Amino acid sequence: MQKRAFTLIELAIVLSIIGLIIGGSFQSIRSMRERNKIAEAKEQIETTKNAIIGYALMWPNLPSNAEFEANISITTSSQTPIFYAVDSNLSNINNDICAFDTTNLALVDNSISPVRVIPNIAFVLAHASANNNMQTALNTSISPHRVNIYSPSTKVDDNATPVNIAEAYDDIVTWMTLTELQNLVECSKNSLKIISDYALPRDINGTNYTGAYVFADGGFPFADGGDADSEKDYEWCLENAPAWLNANICNGAFVSQTDCSTATYSRCTSPYLYGAKTEAGTFGLKVYVRDSAARESKKSFTIAIDLSLTGDGSGGSTLLPKGAPCTVGSECQSGICTKNKCK
After folding, report:
1. 291 and 176, same structural domain?
2. What would the pLDDT profile of 60-90 be if each residue is shown by its tens digit?
3. Amino acid 230: pLDDT
4. Which listed site, 48, 74, 286, 337, has its alpha carbon 20 to 30 Å from 272?
């Protein structure tokens, strides 16, 4: 029996099918490789971001560009380095992340309309991803400095190194705002606050107010030098204090301010309040404190001044019985006040 041979048309069809299969396979392999590169890029970016956060938890600042390239960036010399943009104040070894309210770095998201500008960025990371072309760059020609990101359909290359080819944007980008970073490193634990109780020690009318200190804690105090002690200092202002109140406000004469927002503050560890009272009643005042980072805290206080008391209770008020809270012995029926309780 004579065997039938393939015709040229049949061979052409077979070869076309084989070509389609091979071409499809190559395309599938290429797509798979690109997906793997993108997945690897995302993993490297996340690892690098966590390393920067770990650095900030250990030190009060972010790594500089030199520190990042030497100790944090995980790409090898054969790969395009991870892009790192950081606010220079936050990466200064002499500064503390928690001392800042703003940064000189913003991120511009061109992938949405209208374009979104995200201010007060702490740092930005970008990976060149599948095309190995770093298209993300830092623009320092304007303030705040800006990093632009784009949608995948945009052909662009803001970064002239290592190659400068405008192609579909595929960089993997992540960033962190200053607020997010400060929350992660728990800056709130170091917030500036006045720690004295709202109610200052009470007293009896007709006697000199024995005085009370107002103390602050946290924040970023000034180096000692505003007063005679060796403690770190803050800046203070007293607002709308009673007329009889005097104060050793940072080794200077006390002047009650009507508005501390426009007043000149005095610097010392803590102000001391005292005075010769001329009337009974409950008096209020507001105390402001400010640290070296220009952060401010305020607190309202009350001082209760009772009527004058005598041993027989003739001062217009009843003497306190045994065990009642007291400030001085003249408040008590026994005439003795020990550990703030009548005997």
Report:
1. no
2. 999 999 999 988 887 644 577 899 999 999 9
3. 80
4. 337
